[in-house]
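Summary for the steering committee. One of the milestones for this cycle was to obtain a three-dimensional model of the protein with heme C bound, which we needed before selecting residues for the alanine scan. The sequence and ligand used are listed below.
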Amino acid sequence: MKLFTPLIILALAIVIIALSCQNDSPEQEDLALEAAREFFRVTDVTVEDSKRMYLHYCSVCHGATGKGDGFNAYNLDPKPRDFTDSTFLNKADSAYVVKVITDGGRAVDLSAMMPPYGRTLTTTEIEKLAEYVLFLSRDSTN
Ligand code: HEC
């Protein structure tokens, strides 16, 4: 029984730490999605799905908002591109971004650390992700 109280305190501490780590307020989140919806201009495109996929597969290196500051980025040389840098948009169109995501960095003479997703994701998923990447680079408030 003596073990019981410290365990409860520990569990509470974990819950509190987990809650305090959620730094994006719900309103900010909504605003970002609203902007994305406007960009896609098609209401039945699931921006939420693209964002979820991006956060799941890409943000570890490219960062949650595409600035190339994911927690794995310090490991990489060259660093992942900052998608919000305007020079990225000058060379990137959706065909290019789809190719990089499908075939990986090596296919476009970039770092092989950029993995190919052609076997993991469907063509539609990759197209949605490419739109999301281009959206991030257009809207740096996201
Ligand atoms: C293991 C780390 C890592 C992951 C995961 C990753 N990337 Fe990359 N990515 C890189 C690196 C490194 C490069 C090459 C350097 C650069 O960005 O110029 C790159 C390059 C790119 C480029 C081309 C940038 C340019 O300048 O032409 C695109 C587009 C891209 N990644 C999209 C994605 C998407 C979308 C995902 C998720 C499906 C993803 N990446 C997942 C590391 C990663």
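Key point for the committee: Residues 103 and 116 are 4 Å apart (CA to CA).
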